[in-house]
Amino acid sequence: METSQAHSAESMSKDLSELMKEATKEVHERAENTPFMKNFQKGQVSLHEFKLVTASLYFIYSALEEETERNKDNPVYAPVHFPAELHRKAALEKDLEYFYGSNWREEIPCPEATQKYVERLHYVGKNHPELLVAHAYTRYLGDLSGGQVLKKIAQKALQLPSTGEGLAFFTFDGVSNATKFKQLYRSRMNALEMDLATKKRVLEEAKKAFLLNIQVFEALQELVSKGQENGYPMQPKAELRTRSVNKSHEHGPAPGKESERTNRRHTDMMPTTPLVRWILAIGFLATTVAVALFAM
Question: Is 265 exposed, middle or buried (0-12, 13-18, 19+ CB in 10 A)?
Fold first, then answer.
């Protein structure tokens, strides 16, 4: 018994970031094999699906950032509070306005699984703020790791504007060097004062974060498979492409931003190149479930 306890204490003496990587290995593999992930891997990704994921991320980050702001002076979280560098809510608001228009708040769906994730974040922030580090680490550092590369892939695959509209989520203007920032973040997190029991609870919460993500993607897959958005059956839509629109205006005035935005809102587009679709599939889902933390 004493030997077992000593071994447990010794293993828990590792850095928290390394312990998270080890503790979430199994659930991470489960996240990779969700139907939603597999469909993305097959190249079955449309602008509609991209929009649904963006909407769910908005609700998740709104809750996470409300709770991290609530605990920004709490010593159990304050050392890893980097709002200017990491917060994503404002960026997601820009993306959603681009995709859905000015009334996006009334249009975006919040599936039950996403709401469950949101409720967990609020519960943790209000009752167990020491566990917020598990959610913040798996989300922010995962998104930051794949951000710039993923932005370019999504831009090409979904034929989004070269000026970056619809991709603000992947742009971290407050981080000039992602590698150095991640090192700083990990060092701050590893320095948090935690007893053995608290450290174990943080690791369990990190696994719960992955499970919540899996449930979100399963719900989105079901939503897509039913052809629904906002709870209503979606009507078949013509497949329009930015390239085609631009071509039709070769000898006339180009469409304005409002016209382009309208086309984005009312068109589901499949990327034209299978390889690019496949890369996008892996990259986007990997980012949203924080797969990137395993490469850190």
Answer: middle
DSSP bridge partners of 257: none
Rounded mean pLDDT of 93-112? 96
Q: How far is CA 201 from CA 50, 59, 228, in A?
A: 33, 24, 38
The two most distant CA atoms of the chain are separated, in Å, by 82
Residues with Cβ < 8 Å from 3, sequence gap 6 or more?
A: none
Mean of all residue pLDDT scores within the chain: 77
**171 CB-near residues (< 8 Å, 6+ apart):** 91, 147, 148, 151, 164
Report the SS3 class of residue 228. strand
Question: What does the pLDDT look like over 240-270, one tens digit per residue?
Answer: 233 333 434 444 444 455 555 545 554 444 4
253 burial via Cβ count (<10 Å: 0-12, 13-18, 19+): exposed
Among 25, 110, 130, CA closest to 61: 110
pLDDT computed for residue 1 by the predictor: 55
Cα separation, 248 vs 259, whole angstroms: 14
What CA–CA distances, in Å, run from 291 to 101, 138, 167, 294?
31, 8, 19, 6
Tokens standing for residue 77 = 């979280």
Cβ-contact 117, 215 below 8 angstroms: yes
Highest-confidence segment of 5-19, 261-275, 282-296: 5-19
CA atoms within 13 A on the CB side of 27: 21
Two tokens at 261? Answer: 């935005």
* Residue type, position 136, single letter: A
